[in-house]
Amino acid sequence: MVFLIFRLFLLLCFGLAGCERRYLRKEAYDTVPELITSAGYPVEKHRVTTEDGYIIQMHRIPAGRRVARKAGFSEKGKKAILIVHGLLGSSSDFIIMGPERSLAYLLADEGYDVWLGNLRGNVYTSHVNYTKKSPKFWEFSFHEHGKYDVPAMIDKVLNVTKLPRLMYVGYSMGTTSFFVMASERPEYNNKVISFVALAPAVYLANMKTIAMTALKTLELPQRMRSQGMLSLVFRRDLLDLLIRNVCFRSKPEEDICMRFMYMIVGDDHEQFDKELTAAILYRVQPASWRQLEHFGKIAMSDVFTSWGDGVWGAARAYNLSNVRVPVSLLYGENDMLTEKNQIMRLAEVLSATGSLEVVRPACDWAKFNHLDFVFAKDLGTLLNKPLVDYIKSLFNKYGPS
């Protein structure tokens, strides 16, 4: 819902005088495999087809830079990690900040077999029967991500690596999708060593006012559909033009785009990476209206509910007691989107069922917000390097000997 309003805001802002003109960096246009190769890492592309016909491209980093320079590398003793992105994201979110900051690279350099997932709807997905110009293609929310996409990706990783289990790391909607899977397909608990949830999006009562405004008062998804807009997506040339002419004033605190975003996700000018943010915005991926409506339904009902019979239908809570893997909940102290209070509520539910491993701040930076989990300027030192050590401890505690 936040990004929908942000995109519309960009359209309204187009053409404002006084904005600096800037040109996008190479990182804005390269594919994920191209970015990984440019960074000096080996990369593989794998395709998996879900039970309901969606085709997903996954990106694998099977070794770190030092190992990649050798004649080859051995998979013996490797530990597999599947990382899944959030709303309007893709596998690029975990590599775009570069080798010294991005989680995927840091894990690969520590010897892990890193798999980056993609959820239906983004540029790395398609369908066996429908194109993205078909309304049928967009009839999904994160319910289908959890019921079909994540299980298919887990099975792919395990089939290729011949491992019995993997580690799962999710960010925002990537966590929502895992909790849906654990609720709807609890047999997949047996295929996961542990689950690290970054900014988990499960309870969203703090977003009720925004959801009500967007879905009930303004009826934004219905209006967009009536205009023939099948999903939340913009032409790349238009997005390029908007970013070049609207955003990124000389001082971050004067940047109208980021000021608007910080109103929603939490203010953190110090972690604003001016050099990469334009490229990151350009890489924003499409979303289905139902994804946004489903999150809105959760916010308005204050229930972690399935989609069921629609946004205004009865709430049916997902069964979180089906979660049987150790879950680590990491939150941002200044995350206004997935608020600390809502994550503490989730922690109570998981603690009652015995699946809570830990709930704690992502780092000691008091301004750490929702976007900082993937795009903070000091992401490596604040979050990811300590997170790699924590993941190692989870493997030692729960993984195979």
TrEMBL record:
Gene Ontology BP term (one):
lipid catabolic process
Note the InterPro entries from the entry. Answer: AB_hydrolase_fold, AB_hydrolase_lipase, Lipase_euk
Keyword tags: Glycoprotein, Hydrolase, Lipid degradation, Lipid metabolism, Signal
Gene Ontology MF: a single term: hydrolase activity, acting on ester bonds
- Domain Partial AB-hydrolase lipase, residue spans: 32-97
Would you say which domain of life the source belongs to?
Eukaryota
Q: Which Pfam families match?
A: Abhydro_lipase
Q: Which family does it belong to?
A: Belongs to the AB hydrolase superfamily. Lipase family.
- Its name, as the record gives it, is Lipase
